Amino acid sequence: MNWTIWVKGLVAAAISGAAGGVLTAFAAMGIDPQHFNLAGGLRQTLAMAGSAAAISALIGAAGYLKQSPVPNGVK
After folding, report:
1. Quick check: is 36 in a domain?
2. Residue 73 included in any domain
3. Cα–Cα distance between 54 and 60 in angstroms, integer?
4. How many helices (H) and strands (E) does the chain have?
5. Domain of residue 9, residue span
6. Which long-range contacts (CB under 8 A, 24 or more apart) does 71-74 make?
7. What is the pLDDT of residue 46?
8. Closest CA to 62 of 52, 54, 72, 73
9. Which of 22, 35, 39, 45 has the most C-beta neighbours closer than 10 Å?
10. Helices marked H in 32-75
11. pTM for this model (two decimals)
12. Does any domain span residue 13?
């Protein structure tokens, strides 16, 4: 495995995790529309979407690193 493929895989895992986090915000709008919505609760909704995306991206990246550690020969 070369370095470029490894980095692309790591980025793909992080993007996939972040997308799942954003979907969490949309699910919250369905569960609690009084606090999380695109009108009066936009700030809360975006804050939750950002937090969930960041956490999910880290989890995705960590899972990728567990499966595919840094390639040999990288210093």
Report:
1. yes
2. no
3. 10
4. 2, 0
5. 3-67
6. 71/1, 71/2, 71/3, 71/6, 74/3
7. 85
8. 54
9. 45
10. 42-67
11. 0.78
12. yes
